[in-house]
Amino acid sequence: MTIDVIGYSREFKKIRKNWNRVYLSDPESHPLLSWSWLNEYLSRREQWFILAFGQEQTDHRYDAFLPLEVTTLQDDDTGLFSDQLLMIGNRDSGESGFLCMPGLENAAADAFAGFLMSESWTSMRFERCEPSSARLEHLLQAFPDGPLSRSSEDRARGEIDKGPVHSVLIRTRTGRNLHDRLNRRSVGFVFERAMALHAEGKLDVAEAGYRQVIRTIPGHVQARYALAQLYSDRGDHAEAEYLYRGLLATLPDADEILHRLGDTQMEQGSYGEASKTFEKLVGRHPHRGILRYKLAVTLLAAGRRDTAIAVFLSFDEVASDDSDHIRCKLKAREVLRRLEPVCGMEEQSEVQQQRISFEPTGLLFGYSVPVAVPSARFQTLAPWLLEPSLPSGAWAHLHARSGDRDCKCSRLKH
Predict the structure, then answer these.
(1) How many Å is the Cα radius of gyration of the chain?
(2) Into which CATH architecture does domain 184-342+353-397 fall?
(3) Domains of the chain: which residue ranges?
(4) 386, 351 contact by CB (below 8 A)
(5) What InterPro entries is this protein classified in (predicted)?
(6) Cβ atoms within 10 Å of 356's Cβ, excluding its own
(7) Average pLDDT, rounded, for the chain
(8) I need a surface site. Which of 126, 202, 297, 321 has the fewest CB within 10 A?
(9) Are the C-beta atoms of 176 and 82 separated by less than 8 Å?
């Protein structure tokens, strides 16, 4: 026996003949399980999958199908996301939730339940009406009691001449998804939602979403990058630096991440390290004026005045009509004019700490959701070095893209 997962419309279309064969053979088939109705319904949904049961691993013919939809919930108190499974053919009807060839109902139900226990979800609802479907009862009883609890309620059906529907909710005892991970079909949605919360300044709940995505897919680069940004926005630049370095260990040529690393080093006053970072970036992108300007500023802050002046002067050696380069070039000339009468940085009067905000632009992953902008803190530099503003490309930002009534959750539409 084997279970295959069908998760794309093109795969669903390929099994149409097989589906219709089972549908016509099943005495409990009903319109909500017909291929035509489901094809139309699934075309309007993003998070769904179908379990296909077969008796032989080498045979591509299936003998049972269980169509399911995933709904994502967010707890209003903790901000954590969880997933609910809905049987499309059973919801609001009490009818059988899956198709099956006669005589294989129990085997298919056991196989479906066993597979679903390996998936990530918090709850699954069964609707039952009289007379109850034997296969639906078998599927309900096939789920183990240990990690799961059951609760029941009755509600009236819309049709006056029909009896009530008995609803049974299977739910994890922890209130979190099985395996403490998101359902992989909701990862994109949760990431987008976390990005939106981040942009709204709700950093704690955004962090919870990012971490759930990373726990589910440790290699999710966008989520790890966004989490590093979040720490910068929160002012924890040491943690942001740690996260950026972790990304660079995997993506050593990701220059936008390296740029962000340099920014966090500047934020912490690690100007020597920041100058090394920007020197590497200038070597890769000699025509990007903002990188050259930041290299010169960090060298000046690190006490390497002569080298910094040489970098400021090097703008005249780069031929570029890029607007940001031209603005940086003009700013470099202004710095040089002000440095002329000064013998050294040590002779300047002590300057007050000032926060300078930069305009966010630049795409790392090709999306367009705004993110809160961090600011730079310089304790040893004169304010005029960064005033009135640096060019618009000064900061590289990530731009994203991707319930139950008895718990305090918000139902999120997909």
Answers:
(1) 29
(2) Alpha Horseshoe (1.25)
(3) 2-180, 184-342+353-397
(4) no
(5) TPR-like_helical_dom_sf, TPR_rpt
(6) 17
(7) 82
(8) 321
(9) yes
User: What single string gives the DSSP state of each residue in 328-353?
Assistant: HHHHHHHHHHHHTT-S-GGGSPP---
The three-class DSSP label of residue 366 is coil
Token pair for 229: 């940004």
Which amino acid is residue 107, in one-letter code? A
Residue 409: beta bridge partners? Answer: 75
Q: Looking at the domain that runs over 2-180, which CATH code has it been given?
A: 3.40.630.30
Tell me how long the chain is.
Answer: 414
CB atoms within 10 A of CB 239: 16
Question: 57-88 pLDDT, tens per residue?
Answer: 656 799 999 999 999 999 988 889 999 999 99
Q: Give the span between the Cα atoms of 216 and 222, in whole angstroms.
A: 13
Instruction: Give the SS3 label for residue 357.
Output: strand
Closest listed residue to residue 147, CA positions, set 121, 180, 120, 171: 171
Cα angle value 326/330/332 (rounded, 5°): 115
Q: Which residues pair with 6 in a beta bridge?
A: 50
For the cut 60, the answer to whether the pLDDT of residue 407 exceeds it is: no
| Cis ω for the linkage preceding 131 (within 30 of 0) | yes
The top-scoring range by mean pLDDT among 272-281, 318-327, 384-393 is 272-281
Return left, alpha or beta for 45; rule: phi > 0 is left, psi -120 to 50 is alpha, else beta.
Answer: beta
Tokens of 70: 């995933």
Tell me, what amino acid is at 270? S
CB 71 within 8 Å of CB 177? no
